[in-house]
Design goal:
Bound molecules: zinc ion
Shape: elongated
Number of strands: 8
Strand order of the largest sheet: 5-1-6-8-7
Number of helices: 9
Number of domains: 1
CATH topology: Aminopeptidase
């Protein structure tokens, strides 16, 4: 072999090696990009499948966890671009659970009261909040005139904080609420709590803000139902709900607000009675002036579960949070199924 030949072989080998390396690098990039695309597609498909598995609320009455139901719309949504057209569409039906009362006002500092949405009223010499919104508005407190009221006899526009102080009730309400939340979430609902401990006592304005996306009351409410969870006192026994009466002239109040709210209260109360053994009482009337009714932008079920100052009711209340919570969840689900 002469030198020329050897040189040529070396040159060809170097060129061959260089080409191989370039090919390898290209091949590597190509596989990576295909992988990324495949991963993207997989995630998208999984998201679509997860959305399809959202429980359908209709056609279900046995209180069990709903089976995913495929509708024609779901199948179209898989291929089409429904999500891109409406990226803010709510994923789940939203239910607000409001555990009544909370930390006693006497235990709260002025800063805490302010943070919970209360104000100090010089004229009335008390901390509290305005009960009503101005007619035809949402979010404008009445400040004593031009207000939305239903049954104002005995009621007042100004609601002093101390009126909401209770001794035993806040924790009973909270335990029932937390149990109801667990069951509703199992059923596929989004649950928002107005308070999560007995160290909180939000104003009604603050509690109501949970009906709106990100508590932003300038937007449209996205909750389907607001459930007040209370227990009663003052001599009596059994479980009940407070009925709405009259008209509510707030801009966001739907025309069938009174009927749908009372229907929700009645359905849930029946479930609670059956599950707990508490006697089922009819609706409590004549309380339509209560602050929440005038603040709520979505149907409201106001439950008075048992009498905590009655020893036999209290025994049931203390031992049946789970049963009561499940009954509330089933009642909410029944109401929302029938409301569709
Ligand atoms: Zn008023
Ligand atoms: Zn109460």
């Amino acid at each position: 072999m002469n030198d020329n030949k050897l040189n040529l072989i070396i040159k060809l080998s170097v060129i061959y090696l260089a080409l191989s390396m370039i090919f390898c690098i290209f091949a590597l990039f190509y596989t990576q990009s295909v992988k990324t695309d495949m991963e993207k597609e997989r995630v998208e498909n999984e998201t679509k499948i997860a959305e399809m598995q959202m429980p359908e609320l209709g056609g279900k009455s046995d209180g069990s966890t709903p089976e995913p139901t495929k509708t024609e719309e779901d199948i179209i949504a898989l291929d089409g671009d429904k999500d891109a057209a409406n990226p803010t569409a709510p994923q789940k039906t939203v239910v607000v659970l409001d555990a009544g009362h909370g930390k006693p006002s006497s235990d709260m500092s002025s800063e805490e009261k302010k943070a919970e949405g209360y104000e100090y009223n010089e004229d009335r010499g008390s901390w509290g909040e305005w009960r009503h919104y101005k007619n035809g508005t949402y979010g404008d407190d009445c400040h004593g005139s031009g207000c939305t009221m239903t049954a104002p006899s005995g009621g007042s526009c100004w609601y002093p904080m101390g009126n909401g102080d209770r001794a035993t009730e806040p924790d009973i309400n909270l335990q029932n609420t937390l149990a109801a939340k667990r069951y509703l979430e199992e059923m596929g609902y989004e649950v928002r709590l107005t308070r999560t401990s007995n160290e909180q006592n939000p104003s009604m304005n603050k509690r109501m803000s949970y009906c709106f996306p990100n508590n932003d009351i300038t937007r449209q409410p996205d909750a389907s139902l607001y459930v007040c969870i209370h227990s009663n006192a003052g001599g009596g026994s059994g479980t009940s709900y407070i009925s709405l009466e009259g008209t509510y002239e707030q801009s966001l109040i739907p025309p069938d607000y009174v009927e749908t709210s009372n229907n929700a209260g009645s359905i849930i109360n029946g479930k609670v009675a059956a599950a707990s053994g508490l006697r089922e009482n009819s609706a409590i009337g004549g309380e339509g002036y209560l602050i929440l009714f005038n603040k709520c932008p979505v149907p409201i079920a106001y439950l008075e579960i048992g009498f905590f100052d009655n020893s036999s009711d209290l025994a049931i209340l203390n031992s049946s949070h789970d049963e009561i919570g499940r009954a509330i969840a089933e009642g909410v689900d029944d109401y929302l199924s029938s409301a569709r």
